[in-house]
Amino acid sequence: MRSAPAARQPPQAPRELVIGQSAPFSGPSAQTARDYQEGLLAWFADVNRRGGVHGRRLRLVSLDDRYDPKLTLRNTRQLVEQQQAIALIGYFGTANSKAVLPLVETVGIPYVAPRTGARAVLKPFRPMVFNLRASYQAEIDRVIDQLVRDGRHQVAVVHITDAYGEDGLRSSQIALARHGLRPVAIAGVQRNSTNTEAAARKVLAAQANAVLVIATFTTSAALTRDLSQLGSRAQLMNLSPVGIEGLQDALPGGQANGIGISQVVPFPWNRRVPVVAQYQQLMQRQQTEARYGYTSLEGFLAARWLTAALEKAGPNPSRAKVVGAFRSLTSLDLGGFKLQLGPGDNQASDLVELTFLGSQRWGP
Description:
CATH architecture of the largest domain: 3-Layer(aba) Sandwich
Low-confidence stretches: 1-13
Shape: globular
Strand order of the largest sheet: 7-6-8-9-10-13
CATH superfamily of the largest domain: Response regulator
Number of domains: 2
Mean pLDDT: 93
Number of helices: 12
Structural class: alpha/beta
Distance between the termini: 75 Å
């Protein structure tokens, strides 16, 4: 007699969920990218210690794109096709996001918490993009409102000449127009360039009493030094992507005193905010010497948000199920940091606060 054929076993689901990231882990913005990654890892490591999501461990695969959109696209293809990532998280740069969005939309993979607030990424509505941070327009509106309240109406704009800088310039003009103002000077500088003397002289010639700097910390620090040497007393304001930790490192000896920076996450040293206390505790587990900061806290919050969607997607998640889970999380309180999504609106937070640097660095 022929034995009955053995029952066919269904293929086992992989015991881990891969989450992909492409970011500038080399070059001038490397420290900022690593800080964000540390925040992601602090939360994912804790999830894995507790058994993962529905028993499946989370594995972050981070690839270096050196801020080059072509490399970002190549990395994303690798993450989507070879690594079979279930979601992408924590990409840096407006141009970099624009480069990968067609692929993201074609394959239907959730694109979570890109580190940009540009309108090109947010509008028109993109169903695969789930944005954690406030828009650049919201940041710039808050900055300009503060400058006008302080009687600083002679506002110059210095911006890097890329998609981020151009978006910020347009948002600055819109924000100033709300107060019946226009920039007294506009100067463009190449990304990460330290050749800012011409821009500084243009600001000085316009007698600006405030400067909105839309740049990474390398350029912002160089401009700060040039303006100081030329005798300018203008109030300098930066947006959150500048990288506050890098800016402080680049301007030692109190040179950063008084510089303003808009922030899109809570103060990372305020343990009265429950999610900040949790972040500090897990960063202490993650690092030999705990370092807190806005950038790593943003990564931590993004990781928590993604994990909430993965849990809601169930024990056998797919990219489509995770997208659906995000859309069903219309109101989520991470512990003092509230996220809200609505129909045709994947912009989760509008929080903007202003920070002014002093002679002392914050510490644990």
